[in-house]
Design a protein that fits this description.
heterodimer, A: 412 residues, alpha/beta, Rossmann fold, 3 domains, globular, B: Ubiquitin-like (UB roll)
Chain lengths: 412, 93
């Protein structure tokens, strides 16, 4: 297998060989994978995909690896949930949730990108993988490194949620927290990369890694019955996922797997870290970096390098960008749990809360088909709900105590 | 007054393979012009034709992104350190 011709600068078009590099030497634009689409088109059909495994690897011809995938073989193909209850609450007739809070093995969409990145790191012959992370990526890199038999050294900002820290250490990773924000960590990692010959999944492996996100988009199209929705609402941090979903839809369109794509892509951020949605609302194509201050830590990136492309994706698709304050994030997390039985992390609260705002603004309409991207699991960000629930009543083990408590606390 | 400037790997071909060079000037813009006079061709790699830093380049004065300061007009003082770093994305989504 393997339909990768090489890497190409997204800005100036300069071609590069398949190497662990991510920046154009000339203009510093990001490199992306250049595929042989004619070759892919010859071997891929709706049927070939449907006959593939129930994982992201049903789209492996679209993935930037030259050999068979080596880790994360069960990642992806998560549920696309028809959200009737939530739809009713929001006044939407055709609402879906793409639920990566149950992705395998670490419960976030990051397992898709890391399955690709670590497979690629093995192809390149690295013995250590690393990343700068706000938590979900840390979990996933640590888990996949364990599966691959590679060492991992993972760098995070201090102050992350306990679940994300423990959920990295359990896999035997070396975890280092840095005083500062994600953006500070990211910058430090670029300097660490100069001293250590490691596979930094979101730095030197980034062109390959990023394309794992495309499978989230392919799955939405396939699971909707080989068509794309009218609207997709995407949580935005570095702006990678939002651009890759759009790219995925257009690749399927180009190969004739689906009809013309008319999907509007909406960017969702927390107001406390909203450089991308602020630019969209101001009609600017330039990111003004911010210092993040939000409970939605997994998407708290104040200086998103793909931000320019995030803005472009929302604009080109006819979408928009919105942001909501932290109180609304928590309310949306509760609403999703109470209507659909899905406990998402703060980023999912952001996405749902922003969807509510877009509905009020008339940008998302009741009869349209809308997909909300749920990319992470609420059990990892329990701190966000501190103080929102009282401890459960504790009673004596007898029926009178039960009936008394039950009668006093009827919630149904 | 000379200040230290860290340059990214792709530009080291222009700086005789030095990762750290010295330059003089009162502002970031002056520093960039001074670098150009020492290492011909380096400025067009860092800046657009109008002199503003390229979209995918981040310039830090000490630990701070100059976009939080005064951009290319940010003033430089003795002992400052400047880093020129390609923008790299990452993190959650």
């Amino acid at each position: 297998m393997g339909f990768v011709k090489g890497l190409r600068c997204k800005e100036c078009g300069k071609d590069y060989e398949k190497l662990p590099i991510h920046v154009c030497e000339y203009c510093f634009g990001p490199l992306e994978v250049n595929y042989d689409y004619a070759g892919i088109g010859k071997v891929v059909s709706r049927k070939s995909i449907q006959d593939g495994p129930p994982s992201m690897w049903r789209y492996k011809e679209f993935m930037p690896i030259d050999e068979e995938p080596k880790v994360g073989l069960h990642t992806g193909f998560t549920p696309l949930v028809r959200a009737k209850n939530l739809g009713k609450a929001l006044g939407l007739k055709n609402l879906y949730l793409k639920n990566d809070s149950v992705n395998h093995p670490t419960f976030s969409f990051k397992d898709r990108v890391v399955a690709v990145a670590v497979s690629k790191a093995l192809e390149f012959g690295f013995d250590t993988v690393s990343c700068a992370s706000t938590g979900n990526l840390a979990n996933s890199v640590a888990a996949h490194a364990a599966e691959a038999g590679l060492k991992s050294c993972i760098i995070i900002p201090d102050g992350l949620e306990a679940g994300k820290i423990l959920g990295t250490q359990i896999y035997g990773a070396q975890l280092i927290a840095v005083h500062g924000s994600y953006d500070d960590v990211n910058r430090l990692c670029s300097e660490i990369g100069a001293n250590h010959d490691w596979a930094f999944v979101n730095i030197n492996i980034r062109p390959y890694y990023g394309d794992g996100s495309k499978t989230y988009g392919y799955e939405i199209a396939e699971q909707l019955g080989w068509k794309t929705p009218d609207n997709v609402v995407v949580p935005v941090a570095g702006s990678s996922l939002i651009t890759k979903i759009y790219k995925a839809f257009h690749e399927f369109e180009m190969l004739g797997l689906i009809d013309k794509v008319n999907t509007k892509i909406f960017a969702a951020q927390a107001t406390g870290c909203s450089p991308v949605t602020t630019a969209i609302k101001n009609g600017s194509d330039t990111i003004k970096p911010v210092k993040p201050n939000t409970i939605a830590k997994s998407i708290a990136i104040g200086n998103p390098a793909d931000g320019y492309y995030g803005i472009k994706t929302a604009n080109e698709s006819g979408g928009w960008g919105e942001d909501i304050p932290d109180e609304e994030v928590v309310e949306a997390m509760k609403l999703l749990a109470e209507t659909e039985g899905i406990f998402t992390e703060t980023a999912g609260g952001v996405t749902l809360g922003v969807t509510q705002k877009l509905i009020k603004q008339g940008r998302i309409k009741p009869d349209e088909t809308t997909v909300i991207c749920i990319t992470g699991n609420g059990l990892k960000t329990q701190e966000a709900l501190t103080g929102h629930y009282t401890p459960p009543a504790v009673i004596q083990c007898n029926i009178q105590s039960f009936e008394e408590e039950f009668a006093n606390n009827l919630t149904v | 007054m000379p200040v230290k400037v860290r340059v990214p790997t792709p530009l080291m071909k222009l700086t005789s393979n030095q990762a750290e060079v010295t330059a003089e000037g009162g502002t970031i813009a002056d520093i960039l012009n001074n670098l150009e006079s020492q290492f011909a061709g380096i400025k067009e790699r860092i800046c657009e034709e109008n002199g503003t830093p390229r979209r995918f380049i981040n310039i830090y004065l000490n630990e701070e992104d100059i976009r939080f300061l005064d951009g290319e007009n940010t003033k430089i003082k003795d002992g400052d350190e400047i880093s020129i770093i390609p923008a790299i994305a990452g993190g959650a989504v």
